[in-house]
Amino acid sequence: MKTLWTPLILVNFKTYTEGTGEKALRLAENAEKVSDKTDVCIALAPQYTDIRRLAQRGSLPIFAQHVDPIQAGSFTGYVLPDAVKSAGAIGTLVNHSERRVKLADIDAVVKRVRQLDLVSVVCTNNSHVSGAAAALNPDYLAIEPPELIGTGIPVSKAKPEIVTDSVKLTQNVNPEVIVLCGAGITKGDDVTAALKLGTQGVLVASGIVKAKNPDKVLLEFAEGATSV
Amino acid sequence: MKTLWTPLILVNFKTYTEGTGEKALRLAENAEKVSDKTDVCIALAPQYTDIRRLAQRGSLPIFAQHVDPIQAGSFTGYVLPDAVKSAGAIGTLVNHSERRVKLADIDAVVKRVRQLDLVSVVCTNNSHVSGAAAALNPDYLAIEPPELIGTGIPVSKAKPEIVTDSVKLTQNVNPEVIVLCGAGITKGDDVTAALKLGTQGVLVASGIVKAKNPDKVLLEFAEGATSV
Amino acid sequence: MKTLWTPLILVNFKTYTEGTGEKALRLAENAEKVSDKTDVCIALAPQYTDIRRLAQRGSLPIFAQHVDPIQAGSFTGYVLPDAVKSAGAIGTLVNHSERRVKLADIDAVVKRVRQLDLVSVVCTNNSHVSGAAAALNPDYLAIEPPELIGTGIPVSKAKPEIVTDSVKLTQNVNPEVIVLCGAGITKGDDVTAALKLGTQGVLVASGIVKAKNPDKVLLEFAEGATSV
Amino acid sequence: MKTLWTPLILVNFKTYTEGTGEKALRLAENAEKVSDKTDVCIALAPQYTDIRRLAQRGSLPIFAQHVDPIQAGSFTGYVLPDAVKSAGAIGTLVNHSERRVKLADIDAVVKRVRQLDLVSVVCTNNSHVSGAAAALNPDYLAIEPPELIGTGIPVSKAKPEIVTDSVKLTQNVNPEVIVLCGAGITKGDDVTAALKLGTQGVLVASGIVKAKNPDKVLLEFAEGATSV
After folding, report:
1. Which site from A133, B82, B179, C64 is most exposed, i.e. has the minimal number of CB atoms within 10 Å?
2. Which chains, if any, share at least 3 CB pairs under 8 A with chain D?
3. Burial code of B180-209, b = ≥16 C-beta within 10 A, e = fewer?
4. What residue ranges of chain B have pLDDT lower than 70?
5. Residue C224, pLDDT score
């Protein structure tokens, strides 16, 4: 059985130095404290090599950043969904804007991940693509206009219609899919704004991982998520 | 202005020897005769290097087999949508099972092709993917279970539910999209069966291009398309 | 039998508007005049859809910008080496910096192209890669530091040691390979400088295709090539 | 400082079930015993998620199966060389036949890996490609004809000339590169034969990982490596 959290703050560590190895561990410890204090679910998507160590802490849900559309076998260098599960991940990002995936492979991954009782979060770049992703029946989708990623300009301000259109199209195509949004989110208010547009959480990266005080910003985010 | 034909028989020449160069020209001449005689639209998707010569005949609609999600610029070796248009193509296949495309790129190509007044035919491999493709608003979608391609076992017999589910999901998500089907179609009856399942045409390749008498089979197909 | 020209001016039309369709034809007409007047070989690499029309003029050698490592068969949307040959191309670029290719596929393409009596021009980005490419036994290699492409800063001035090292490594590994260079070449002097560094020609794109007077610049290039 | 071992038995766990999670740990324990007993270096290439746990045992050298040509930054889902190092890997496979890499990226990865004091093992598929790989100056190269991988027919028997030609070409191009060979190796004799052809070790996968008694076969391999 799989749990789906709302609201959800999902932190993507990317391949940032600030999110690798020992630093990934520090981020996780801070996130645990904020989650405990605020009772908001904070999930973490570290690099493959850090999944097991973060998952062993047993506290926050750990996601892979990507898995490949493969079964066990001869696939040297690829990321087996079963392997990230065996390392303790409970889900995976799919089709992040920095790791776009073929349509047929998104479908295959979402289905395989479901068989393994893992949670899928399919990333999308505009409202048409959100509609398409919803048809593939993932657990979550995360709309992130790529031109805003890493800018500090929140999608909820710069392009609110992309978020509301994504929510609307997803409702039409497949109302069971939970919509997150991301790109440019750096303050608690941005999280509140995102939820007010109809989403149920945020996907963030540099806003937390590269912040001077990640724990302070994360606390703001969690408070922003509960003040709606 | 763009014309959308129904029923449509769309013949993919792939990179078959039987569909390259002079042989592509022979196939086109035969297809013209059948189309004239039966009044069924037969469209042809030859290789890039044969597009202009076939289009110059001015008779049948010519499609590219693929175009890349690019604008004019520094993209050595890629296929510019504007270039296939300037060569006389009136549309393009997108995401054929042998040339799968990233979700975001299918969206970008469908939009770019529309700006250029070209027709898009997005290929899909199962009904979920058909629903997703429909959300991207192409002109046509062509459902082809990849495991049947080239087998001579028609999808309309082996997996009719994939076709009917694709038609149904497309109706729900975007009823303006015209559904074709393909894979394993070798006889006129297969075409009739495909139309009876709710499609408005077929996408074929080896069934015509590698047939001993392509013109005879093509005539059967066209008659099959009008006998519904 | 295949001819290998030196010195060679090879003009890559990329997917520039200025090198597509009718404009590709104009460029070819101008290049023919310059080649006739100066007796320098000017080869052209237009888009796939323009290969046949330019080749039919019968005057200058026409190259594809890329071909795929495939044999005739079920490869929808790919570029069959045999097809570009049947359209009249006499060779192909391989591994252009905008269309990088896997090592094993460069090897496969160079071998296939040789079987078809087509000429291969493998592009490289630094001297180590030039050494590697030479080991694969192409007819030509073209060293182009990608950071200089399209800048107007000629490699012969900015990084002459990349060119001389490429020439030296190629001599060591496989002295039969003819070395060209490219990137940032916009004047006749740049061509002269390139030949003085030990190359036997240039690979150019925007310097010609996007020039205000392509025929004037091309004439300068050809004169630069004969003034060494 | 980096150590380069000879002879080397490098075991690729691929994404086999038998080499994932707890089973990866069992394989490592067995390999440690064999290495202790025979004093032959056995290196292991598990999946990314298992690198840290195996490396923490501190006994055998652990390799990644692949790393991407990236620096720290915004590369969601990719494999950062620094991350596999921070997890304890001492090197990486590059360009395995199941994970082919672009020529320019092999060059970039070999250089990056060297900066990080990691060991590179570049895989090749024939002798020309071996010559090309040698020019890129990796620590090791591993020649594996892909058609023999997983067959149980050892390359040393089926195609000894590919191995000896690879050794010869590598000697000519870059004598510092250590040559391994792989594909179809299932017995101690196959290892001995490989060394007699001029290699200094083997790259194996199913022959060990999917063996009924991996420790018994591994012992045979190690004994085969010392009986030359």
Report:
1. B82
2. A, C
3. bbbbbbbebbbbbbbbebbbbbbbbbbbbb
4. 1
5. 93
Q: What is the pLDDT of residues C107-137, one digit of tens each?
A: 999 999 999 999 999 999 999 999 999 999 9
DSSP A102: B
DSSP code string of C197-214: TT-SEEEESHHHHTSSSH
Are C183 and C194 within 8 A, CB to CB? no
Rounded distance between C-alpha atoms, residue C93 and residue B212, angstroms: 36
Residue of D nearest to C103 (CA): D103
Q: How far apart are CA A133 and CA A118, in angstroms?
A: 17
Neighbours of B176 (CB within 10 A): 11
Q: Three-class SS of residue A74?
A: coil
φ, ψ at D39 (rounded to 5°): 65, 25
Measure the CA–CA gap between B18 and B12, rounded to whole angstroms: 11
Paired tokens of B93: 């296949």
Distance CA B107, CA C227 (A): 51
Is residue D43 within 8 A of residue D200, CB to CB? The reply is no
Name the residue with tokens 């030359």: D228
**Which residues have a Cβ under 8 Å from the Cβ of D147 and sit 6 or more positions away?**
none
B–A contact: 3+ Cβ pairs < 8 A = yes
C144 burial level (CB within 10 Å; 0-12, 13-18, 19+)? buried
Residues whose CB falls within 8 Å of the CB of residue A24, separated by 6 or more in sequence, listed in order: A13, A46, A47, A50, A53, A54
The rounded distance, in Å, linking the Cα atoms of C173 and D99 is 27
B–C contact: 3+ Cβ pairs < 8 A = yes
Chain D residues touching A205 at Cβ < 8 A: 74, 76
Q: Are A25 and A55 in contact (CB under 8 A)?
A: no
- Is residue A96 annotated as a catalytic residue, yes or no? yes
**Residues in a beta bridge with C12:** C45
> Which residues does C113 contact at the CB level (< 8 Å), separation at least 6?
C67, C81, C91, C92, C94, C119, C120
Long-range contacts formed by C187-191: CB under 8 A, 24+ apart: C187/C154, C187/C217, C187/C220, C187/C224, C188/C220, C188/C221, C188/C223, C188/C224, C188/C227, C189/C224, C190/C154, C190/C156, C190/C157, C190/C224, C191/C9, C191/C220, C191/C221, C191/C224, C191/C225
Residue linked to tokens 């469908």: B110
Residue C179: phi, psi to the nearest 5?
-100, 130
Q: CA nearest B106: which of D114, A37, A135, A221?
A: A135
Q: In the structure encoding, which two tokens stand for residue C121, read together? A: 């021009």
CB D132 within 8 A of CB D160: no
Token couple for B217? 């089979």
D132, C133: Cβ pair inside 8 Å? yes
Tokens of A181: 């949004």
pLDDT tens digits along B147-159: 887 788 888 888 8
pLDDT for position B80:
98
> What is the reported pTM?
0.96
pLDDT higher than 90, residue D94: yes
Q: What span, in angstroms and rounded, lies between the C-alpha atoms of B81 and B64?
A: 9
Report pLDDT for A1.
Answer: 58
pLDDT digits (tens, 9 = 90+) for A137-187: 999 999 998 888 778 888 888 889 999 999 999 999 999 999 999 888 889
In angstroms, the Cα distances linking B61 to B5, B11, B24, B89, D210 are: 10, 11, 14, 7, 54
- Structure tokens, B54: 């076939």
How many angstroms separate the Cα of C128 from the Cα of each of B31, C13, C144, C162, C175?
Answer: 52, 27, 12, 9, 15
* Chain D residues bordering chain A (beta-carbon distance below 8 Å): 12, 14-17, 20-22, 45, 47-53, 65-66, 70, 72-80, 82-84, 86-87, 93, 96-99, 149-150, 205-206
